[in-house]
Amino acid sequence: MTDSPLSGFVVVDLSTGIPGGYCTKLLADAGADVIKVEAPEGDPLRRWSASGARIGPHEDGALFSFLAGGKHSVVADPVLDEDLRWVGDLLAGADAFVWSPDSPLAEHPTLTPAAVHAAHPHLIVAAITPFGLDGPWSGRPATEFTLQAWSGGIVGLGRGAPDRAPVYVGGRVGDYLSGAYASAAILASRMQVLAGGAGDLIDLSMLESHVMGLTYYPVTYSDMLGRPWRDARRLTVPGVARVKDGLVDVGCGTAQQWFDLCAMIGHEEWIDENAPVSITEQASEKADELYAWMAEHTGDEVRELATAFRIPNAPVASPDAIESLEHFVARKTFVTHPAGFRQPGHPYRITGVELRPPSPAPRLGEHTYRHRHAPRTRRQPGTAQDRLPLSGIRVVDLTTFWAGPSATHLMALLGAEVIHVESARRPDGTRMIAGVPVTEDHWWERQPIFAALNTGKKDITLDLGTERGRELLLRLIATADVVAENYTPRVLDHLGLDYAALQRIRPDIVMCRMPGFGLDGPWRDNPAFAYVIEAAAGISWLTGYPDRNPYEPYSVGDPNAGLHALNAVLLALEHRRRTGEGALVEAAMVDAALNIAAEQIVEYSAYGAVLQRADNRGPSASPQNLYRSNEIDEFGRDDSWVAIAVETDEQWQALRNALGDPDWAADPDLGTESGRRPREDFVDRHLGAWCRDRTGDEIVAALWPAGVPVAKVSQPHRQAELEQLAAREFFEVLDHPVNEPARFTTMPFRMSRRTPPIHAAPAPLLGQHNHELLTELGLSDTDIEELLAAGVIGSAPPD
């Protein structure tokens, strides 16, 4: 018997564009009744095609159809008081309200988030804006491109060639991340409402979403280690490599994987466990030989060998070939939309839960009459005392590295009791990746990535290679609501800890499994780090220079997977509340990545267009590029940049005015996007020359107040210096028993019924809560001492 966990949950959607569209798509797919309220001109996304395909007067664009499937559309005119009163009636009978600016309806004073929250205190109100509802940058213009620049995401992981401008991550991934964060926040807030609380005002900042999704805790890293994560652009080797018949991505995320790669290509003499440089630097030194070896083999040959050596790998998928990849064929990953194009299936699978199949998108105003005449029940706000959304939920966290811990970290920040399970013999991988010498005292506690991903959690060490360790884990799971893990499927299967085994211990358990490629299919057991997931999903395809191999984003695959896993777990918990049944959540990393890269396959299957990477240009703005300023950066290089993206003809006129209306910009053809697009080289030369004579601050000061989307390309370890993030207290300082105080990101949304601090405690020490948790399970002090002596538990890695 299947169940739609959000059946009866009514969402009024007053957003435009991708972020709100994707947020409400996730809710609608889980059974919510989404009523999209549009101004008479409709959502601009109805007329959008990334390839410029012609959309007929009675048609909608394919991307809009993908995002709006299964929703209702009603039209309200903001100049008509009757329509505004009717929208108020809709809100009075709804459960949630999703809002973004930049439409005449959304900008009406009675429909702003604050006004709606005050008038309808029962409602969960989610506002999605570039910078948040307050702070010095609130209301400033921005695009996906300029937000990537401000966040540090463009240079954060060294993406691009040293002799060229850095490159952004193609495909508007930040918009999708913002939508997925908004959906998770709504689902979490709903748990408060179901517990008897009033509605919440969720204030989501897209800039903060970009920080979380496109950078790797650079402020914490800099605070703890006194140096930036990277100080230059370096090609990841081998990374994306050309083979006889195309492109493959092969990556080494650990020293062991680098050693295995050396052995794989027949160069065991390269292996040096005591090398004075990192594996990245070692690989770079051997780049020519590595690429020569790759070029002599086919993609299948390289990938078959890499898989045998347990080295992460994947084909670099393009929109015209991705559907034919064997793994996606076997898993029936792509499905047909009623409009005829192909799209990825859901980003997660949940046993016993019915997720809506692809459904038609509504025509503009198609459901206006129905909803104008439908009876409405005015909802009343709850009166229960405020509590954290996941208060009372216990999570056993078997995850490691980034993707899994990012999901459970959000659960902890939202109030769950999260118990991180490690082994003293083999701690979480993020305790060992930052290069802290093992000669330092407590080196495993000094790793910034672990510190950033695990605040607010408890920690127990259990050696699951022992019968006693497995027994204690099962006893711990019997007390839990959720179990999360992100190993390759064979690991837990080998330990006998699959979903069926957990059900025998606790029938209503929610088990969240986060394999890279899923629980079945030919790539099932392939190791998967973010970069190969990005390659397989097509995100890498759009990232980089058109005359070179694509670049790995090397960031978004992990946190995006964690975010979608959180959405799935919240749906599974609601399913359990309704039915009393547990659920198996399969939140494959690649399925989540395919959904935020969906536009490529949608565009290709609808219009036959293969979207291409284009440096820093993009389909939604012209001009859009990075321009060098006249400053020397903090590393002594002539490598300081600003991002400018003109999305409308009005913004072009604002740019002309801010530049002093120069002669080169006076050509009337440049006044339209269609006229600027073929002359982008001409515009870039002149705009680049103007920027080259100025500092980044001078460029921003000239253009931003005029209404032009612009940003300095920030170094990621300088994020905390951005006045907007400081004003919103996005970073909190935490002390630690071993480390000096450091700054940590919070969440990319505020909740009006929650007051800081967001972090309840710093990341736990290895095995810090062994005694507390084992005592709770009924063990005596003598029992615990015996476990310690036997090596089943511990508080330090072996010497």
The CATH class of the domain at 10-216, by name, is Alpha Beta
Helix share of residues?
Answer: 25-40%
Terminal-residue CA separation: 53 Å
| Low-confidence spans | none
Nearest-angstrom radius of gyration? Answer: 26 Å
Reported for the largest beta sheet, the result is: 7 strands, mixed
How many distinct beta strands?
A: 24
Number of distinct helices = 30
Q: Look at the structure and name the CATH superfamily of the domain at 10-216.
A: Crotonobetainyl-coa:carnitine coa-transferase, domain 1
Oligomer: single chain
Give the strand order of the largest sheet, numbering strands 1, 2, ... along the chain: 3-2-1-4-5-6-24
- What's the shape? globular
The CATH architecture of the domain at 10-216 can be named as 3-Layer(aba) Sandwich
CATH topology of the domain at 10-216: Rossmann fold
Average pLDDT, to the nearest integer? 95
Task: Please characterize this protein's 3D structure.
The chain is built from 30 helices and 24 strands. It has 799 residues and is an alpha/beta fold. Among the domains are: 10-216, Rossmann fold, CATH 3.40.50.10540; 622-708, formyl-coa transferase, domain 3 (2-Layer Sandwich), CATH 3.30.1540. The protein starts with 9 loop residues before the first strand and ends in a 9-residue tail after the last helix. The mean pLDDT is 95.
